[in-house]
What does this fold into?
Amino acid sequence: MKVVATNKRAKHDYHVEETYEAGIELKGTEVKSLREGMVDLKNAFCTIRDGEIYMLNCHISPYKHGSFFNHDPERPRRLLLHKHEIRRLQGKLTRQGYTLIPLRIYFNQRGYAKVELGLARGKSKVDKREDTVKKELERKLREYTKRNRGVDF
It folds into this structure.
């Protein structure tokens, strides 16, 4: 599995409760740009329209050797999920505070582009501060144990 892009802000801004794997409907030059890693998931999110899921604000840069066959970098891309999964997600997204965000894009063993979606709830400022304090404490603990590895008490 070759990971092309990850959404680094997702874990910082959201509590991810469930994850789903979906295929992406892409054009030829988009696949070539993905293989080069020319994708940005920073502001991307997903919506459900007419029983289909679309990924919006995902920027896939135009392929540099693609002349007039190039694609629109910001176009909405349809995601491929089973109908029962879409209905289940639609029910969960109607609840207050939930959103569907792409966590990462990768190529599976068969060479197909896939998106890992996360059903997430937004974090408050207090939650973000608590997470940074926890990370800082863990970092200090690792540093302390590394420094005092051979010392007996």
Q: What stands out?
A: Residues 2-122 form a domain with the Small Protein B; Chain: A; fold (CATH 2.40.280.10). The beta strands are 2-6, 14-24, 39-40, 45-49, 52-56, 59-60, 77-80, 98-107, 113-122.
